[in-house]
Design goal:
mainly alpha
Length: 79
């Protein structure tokens, strides 16, 4: 049995847990949007990829730190 799987288990606020929720498709779509907004420069694929990933991670972190709306402890069905 390989013990590395337990060592790689994500923690609550680890970078690995953060990126696990951000899919390749989300990064690709954001990177493409950034590339288009910057007038489609050639040779900057990796820069836009990492910029997109950083933006998505920052947005995810903001959502995780946002306070619960007053009076709501759980999301109601249909909300």
């Amino acid at each position: 049995m390989d013990d590395s799987s337990s060592a790689d288990a994500p923690t609550t606020h680890s970078a690995k847990a953060q990126t696990a929720l951000i899919t390749h498709d989300k990064i690709r779509a954001r990177a493409y949007d950034l590339w288009e907004r910057h007038h489609r420069p050639e040779g900057y694929e990796m820069q836009f990829w990492f910029m997109a990933k950083r933006e998505l991670m920052a947005e995810q972190e903001q959502r995780s730190l946002a306070p619960w709306p007053e009076g709501k402890l759980w999301a109601a069905e249909g909300d």
